[in-house]
Amino acid sequence: CATWDAGKPLAWRQKYGWTAFCGPVGPTGQAACGKCLKVTNTRTNAQQTVRIVDQCSNGGLDLDIGVFQKLDTDGNGNAQGHLTVNYNFVDCGD
Fold first, then answer.
1. Which domain of life does the protein's organism represent (predicted)?
2. Which of 14, 62, 80, 88 is 20 to 30 A from 54 via CA?
3. Yes or no: domain 2-90 corresponds to CATH 2.40.70.10
């Protein structure tokens, strides 16, 4: 994503926490870069909006630690080493 979003201003980059995206549903590659997701912890229903700023290959989301901590409201994600989440694409409002 850095190749395609290199010219974006700092305010754009700081508006949301970030994630690398390689989820099983949704656009891939350049089509996913810069889009936003509403991510929901399925255990606690905590939600955060994140911006896709990178790609990955693990079949999920690689969340910014700050976002992970805000979603992990009961500490179970930290204890297990991962969170189980749902996500949907949302308008970033840019």
1. Eukaryota
2. 80
3. no
